[in-house]
Amino acid sequence: MALIPKPRSRFLKVQCPDCSSTQTIFGCPATDVVCITCGKVLAKPRASKGLIKAKILGVLE
């Protein structure tokens, strides 16, 4: 029986600092992630992990 390693990337539940709406985003985004309500950039791509510019409310498993 082969063991499958757990992925290092997670989905994050974040809150927009401008309009306080919540949404779920990927922790390693490939493009800029914007708020669906006001359009503010919540996350930017980086080399490995994303630069999260919003308040992280929780990590989804």
Structure description:
The chain is mainly β. It has one domain: N-terminal domain of TfIIb (Single Sheet), CATH 2.20.25.100. The protein has no helices and six strands. It has strands spanning 11-15, 22-26, 33-34, 41-44, 51-52, 55-60. The chain has a three-stranded antiparallel sheet, with no helix packed on it. It has a three-stranded antiparallel sheet with strand order 3-4-5, with no helix packed on it. A hairpin with a 6-residue loop joins strand 3 and strand 4. It is elongated and about 50 Å long. 15% of the residues are buried. The mean pLDDT is 91. It comes from Methanococcus aeolicus (strain ATCC BAA-1280 / DSM 17508 / OCM 812 / Nankai-3).
Question: What are the salient characteristics of this protein?
Answer:
zinc ion binding; 39% strand; three-stranded antiparallel sheet; single chain; mainly beta; 61 residues; 0% helix; N-terminal domain of TfIIb
Global structural class: mainly beta
CATH architecture: Single Sheet
Question: What count of helical segments does DSSP give?
Answer: 0
Poorly predicted regions are none
Q: What is the CA-CA span between the terminal residues?
A: 23 Å
Largest sheet: 3 strands, antiparallel
Strand order of the largest sheet: 2-1-6
Radius of gyration over C-alpha positions, nearest whole angstrom? 13 Å
Fraction of helical residues: under 10%
Shape designation: elongated
Query: Which CATH first-tier class would you pick?
Result: Mainly Beta
Briefly note the CATH topology name. Answer: N-terminal domain of TfIIb
Pattern of helices and strands: EEEEEE
What fraction of the residues are assigned to beta strands by DSSP?
35-45%
- How many domains would you count in the coordinates? 1
CATH superfamily descriptor: Ribosomal protein S27
- Strand tally is 6
The mean pLDDT is 91
